[in-house]
Structures are given as structure tokens and as C-alpha cells.
Amino acid sequence: MDLLQLRYFRVVARYEHVSRAAEELRVAQPSLSRAIARLEAELGAPLFDRQGRRIRLNQYGLTFLRHVERALSELDDGRRAVRDARDQVLGRVSVAAETLLTLTGLLAGFRTAHPRADVRLFQSTAEGMERQLRGREVDFCFASQALTGPNLRTVELAREEVLLAVPLGHRLVGRESVTIAELADEPFVTTRAGTWPRALLDRLFAAEGLTPVLSCEGDEPGATGDLIGAGLGIGLVPAMSRLAGRSPLGAWLRIDAPGCHRVLTLVWSEDAYLSAAALAFREFVTSRPFLPSWPPAVG
Asked: What pTM was estimated for this model as a whole?
């Protein structure tokens, strides 16, 4: 058993698809399949259930994956620690968020305070963030949904009400509030499954035994306001987004439903190595009130 086999296994386990894993690893598919077969032979147990061309992690694979991720993460942390000590630099801080637009002001301030820090950004769903934290691909996540996993630390940065935005000329312009039942047939501009606006929208409708009508599912929450202003539908927006003033929205209404709010948190793994840059970033973010960047698009 060698490190290359373990890294191969981790990627195959992530995708549960040999071709996709081979493409990411940039190796030939037959070579990858042989490496996994040798690993299984050494362990004395199959790690995947195979049905034709499809594979699925089985109970042995899930058990082994937990240990592999821990071992590889420790080695990666050790490599980063040695590199940072050798080069005597702040090192890199890697950050994931569902939308990057509201972080631009914060990041500009951090870069001004720490110009030698190397900052890397990812846009991810909540599921992607959990995977990135487990794999030590990122140091911190800005999450608007609860992230699950061992040894995760969460600090609340901001809490705000979520409102309903409607375009100019909409029948609800002039109203102060609205119920979910009144929105049953309205087309919604939202984001794809896995993002916080979509999760909130689905939860609010499910509580009333309803399913929302969707007119648009995008990848960038920050584009929601512009699409609503273009007349594609109505949508959920954080209350602070009213300060942006970029999209020609007709009105913002309160939604008469419990739990219609967004909580933005900073999440990291307590047992992961943090470079000097990452430690400085955490201190920078948590030692002051979190103020989103304005004026972004609504989101």
C-alpha cells in the first residue's frame, strides 16, 4: 500500500465513477482500475459494489475512506507546516463561500492588512464545503447552512431577515407582508439545490404542503436581484441587499412564516493545520462586525 494508491482511492470514492476520477487525476482509466484492485487485494475486502459500469462505496469502503482522509489530511498539513517554516512566509489561506460577491470588501481589507498572504477562493455548495473541509482543501467556509462533520467549529458572523423581492408593476407592490400560500402560483427566481436560498425556499413551501414554481435556477445567488428586476419572477433576498440599490426592484415584502432568516457563519476544522495567513484571516474576520460588500448584486 502506498500514498498514490490512497490518493487514487480517495478521488474514486468521491466520484464513485472511475472515468471521472481518472480524468481529474490525469491517469489512464485501466491504470486507475488496476491500482484500486491491488488496494482491495491487499486489504482483503472489496471497497466498492460494482453493477456493470457503476460503482458504489460499500461498508468496507466507507470505513476505510474515513481513515484514508484522516491520514492524507495529516500528511498534507505536515507538508504545509514544513513549507511555511522553511519559507518564513505567512502562507496560504483557502476560503469557500456560496457567493463570493459579499466577501470582496472583507478580502480587500485583509489583503491591505496582510499583503504577503496568499488568498485562494472557491465557490461551493454546503455539501461541497463539507467535502472541502474534510479533505483539507479549504481552511474556512462562509456558510449560510449548517455544516456537519467531526471537529468543526462554527462562529456566527451575521443574522438577518430574508425578504421577498418583486419586480416593478407586480401585483404585490404596495403590500407590507405576504404568506407562503399567497405565493403558490408565483414563478420564483432562485439558485440550484444545495444553496441556502433554495434550501430556505423549499423549506418554507414544504411547511405549507406546497412546492414552489421555479422560473430560474442559477449558480450565483448574487444574480438573483438582477433577474427579478428583469421580470423573470420573484425571489428571496437577504434584508441587507436592499442597500445595494442596483436592481430595479418594485418592493421588498416581509414573509409571514417562521424561520425566514439567514445566518452567516465562519466554519473551520479544529484539528486542521492553519498557516499564519489562515490564523491572521480568522482573527481579522471574527474580531470585528461582519459587513458585506456593497453595492453587490442582490444575494
From this structure: 0.69
Q: Which CATH class is domain 158-262?
A: alpha beta
**How many helices (DSSP H) and strands (DSSP E) are in the chain?**
9, 12
Superfamily of domain 90-157+265-286: Periplasmic binding protein-like II (3.40.190.10)
Which residues, 6 or more positions from 6, have their beta carbon under 8 angstroms from its beta carbon? 39, 68, 71, 72
The C-alpha atoms of residue 195 and residue 99 are separated, in whole angstroms, by 9
pLDDT tens column, 167-178: 999 999 999 999
- Locate the domains of the chain by residue range: 3-71, 90-157+265-286, 158-262
Q: Is 1.25.40.10 the CATH classification of the domain at 3-71?
A: no
Among 98, 106, 190, CA closest to 144: 98
| The residue count for the chain | 299
Q: Which H helix or E strand runs over 156?
A: strand 152-167
Which helix (H) or strand (E) is 4 found in, with range? helix 3-15
